[in-house]
Automatic annotation (TrEMBL), chains A, B:
Pfam families documented for this protein: MiaE_2
Name the record gives this protein: Ferritin-like fold-containing protein
Origin superkingdom: Bacteria
Segments forming domain Ferritin-like: 16-193
SUPFAM superfamilies listed in its UniProt record: Ferritin-like
TM spans (from-to): none
Amino acid sequence: MSSDSVNSAVPPSDPGVTDLFAVLAYGEISAFYRLAEEAESAPSLRGKVAVAKMAAAEMGHFTTLESALAARGVDVYDAMAPFVRALDAYHSSTDPSTWLESMVKFYVGDGIAADFYNEIAGALTPDVAAVVRDVLAETSHSEFVVEEVRRAVEVSRSERDRLTLWGRRLLGEAITQAQYVMAQRDELTDLVLAATGDLNGIAALFERMQDSHAERMATLGI
Amino acid sequence: MSSDSVNSAVPPSDPGVTDLFAVLAYGEISAFYRLAEEAESAPSLRGKVAVAKMAAAEMGHFTTLESALAARGVDVYDAMAPFVRALDAYHSSTDPSTWLESMVKFYVGDGIAADFYNEIAGALTPDVAAVVRDVLAETSHSEFVVEEVRRAVEVSRSERDRLTLWGRRLLGEAITQAQYVMAQRDELTDLVLAATGDLNGIAALFERMQDSHAERMATLGI
């Protein structure tokens, strides 16, 4: 990053930073409960344990964000409230019907979110960006997901086709909800604009996200 | 503890130690999923977060036990298998029908288990006992539970009566399942005997557990 962009970083006091921490925090909570629920369909105790570990990692991230918000004098529950509807809508509209769909959703959905928030982090001061990058850090649990999915799609072409469509739908729904959140929250939109420059920059961001998405799909073999 | 009892400690290589780590590990997994499921009935987002944190703490303990078993050359999934039925039976027979019942079960059930395993830890070498005590350590989340329950029973006598009966049932079911496990697993029974001396010692252990249980019920105001 050039010293220019650091100089023009969004100040930590910006209300958009509170919004960013809050939407990430509610993302962790909702991911926790989705994962725990979807583990019902795990084919083995090993799968259940893997999912429980992923879910527990989400709560570690939540605690980081809760502390970061507390340090700003903000109650995490108040701050999360505006984002409950959009994130719940994303999860309802992408409710997995099989264990493999859950696994793809975890891997692909987390990846899409990480791309989006990591780009925003580029506009933040180093200490604020560090919180964001910390809670987005990929965990080793992803390896479990990649193995589960690759093994299944290698032996079944119809499974592969089905999961390919599923992955495409996840990207579409995620972008829909991201746009909805931005339309509702000016503070967050300003942050995204600070990170991308202008509306063309936002379009370019969504293109880069589609490229990364395609790479993740390829990693899964779909 | 006198140097005598340390000298006569159960050696770390004892197969009962593997059983002990394994039953604790499955206890953490099953508690994780029970908590996550019961959080559906949480009256607020704050309650859901508190439960998710408790559940995440269980997974931290699971990881400790998984590592301890790996250090013994034992696969955690193989080792847990003999305990799945008894622990699942305990949870099925004590399925909470309200949020407050879930809270009482978390607090009282965890306490009963901790009493039992802490007594066994007294017969172990310090390094093995440290693993057991580490995974049984009470977390600060208990405070949340105590507050939730106390507040509810202060304003409702019928709620208090109902939860008192519920707490009594939890103790009964826990002892039933503990006896069932011991009848099935000689290695574990030998550990309990090493910790308590003889059958009279086991009876005395169950009496001490009842006393601690009564104290916990009093803390909850029931």
